């Protein structure tokens, strides 16, 4: 599940699980952990913040062209949790629909094979 959607879901899920901890385990929230480039990871986090799914992402650009990217205060928002809930339900519905489709197909094949 290394698609854009899959990685975004994993980022949000990591932050949701971190709600039980005193701080976000930043080693679990890194480009290396998700096997993507640092640039892609930072862009995902900025997109998630702009969409209102996370808060606490700090990106500072300096005159010399250097960039400081700080996620030490990152947290999931209510909108981020809602995204996880809705997409978890949609995934369950898709799996159930696929299962029903397979059972219908199996029943059809069985009916065709009966003399």
What features would you describe in this structure?
This protein has 115 residues and is mainly alpha-helical. The protein has 4 helices and 4 strands; from the N terminus they run αααββββα. It has helices at residues 4-17, 31-34, 38-50, 78-113; strands spanning 54-55, 58-61, 67-70, 75-76. Strands 1-4 form a two-stranded antiparallel sheet. Strands 2-3 form a two-stranded antiparallel ribbon. Strand 2 (58-61) and strand 3 form a beta hairpin. It is elongated.
Which residues form runs of ≥5 with pLDDT under 50? Answer: none
Question: What's the total helix number?
Answer: 4
Round the mean pLDDT to the nearest integer and report it: 83
- Give, in spatial order, the strands making up the sheet with the most strands: 1-4
From the structure provided, what is the oligomeric state, counting identical versus distinct chains? single chain
Largest sheet: 2 strands, antiparallel
Strand content: 5-15%
Helix amount, in percent? 55-70%
Shape: elongated
Radius of gyration: 20 Å
Order of helices and strands: HHHEEEEH
How far apart the termini lie comes to 44 Å
Helical/strand content category: mainly alpha
Give a count of the beta strands, DSSP E runs of length 2 or more. Answer: 4
Key words describing this protein structure:
58% helix, two-stranded antiparallel sheet, 4 helices, 115 residues, mainly alpha
Question: What is the compact description of this entry?
Answer:
With 115 residues, this protein is mainly alpha-helical. The protein has helices spanning 4-17, 31-34, 38-50, 78-113; strands at residues 54-55, 58-61, 67-70, 75-76.
């Amino acid at each position: 599940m290394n698609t854009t959607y899959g990685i975004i879901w994993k980022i949000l899920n990591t932050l949701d699980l971190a709600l039980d901890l005193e701080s976000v385990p930043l080693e679990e929230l890194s480009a290396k952990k998700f096997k993507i480039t640092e640039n892609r990871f930072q862009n995902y986090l900025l997109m998630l913040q702009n969409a209102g799914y996370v808060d606490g992402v700090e990106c500072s650009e300096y005159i010399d062209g250097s960039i400081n990217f700080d996620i030490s205060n990152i947290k999931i928002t209510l909108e981020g949790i809602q995204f996880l809930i809705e997409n978890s339900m949609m995934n369950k519905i898709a799996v159930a629909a696929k299962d029903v489709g397979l059972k219908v197909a199996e029943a059809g094949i069985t009916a065709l094979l009966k003399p």
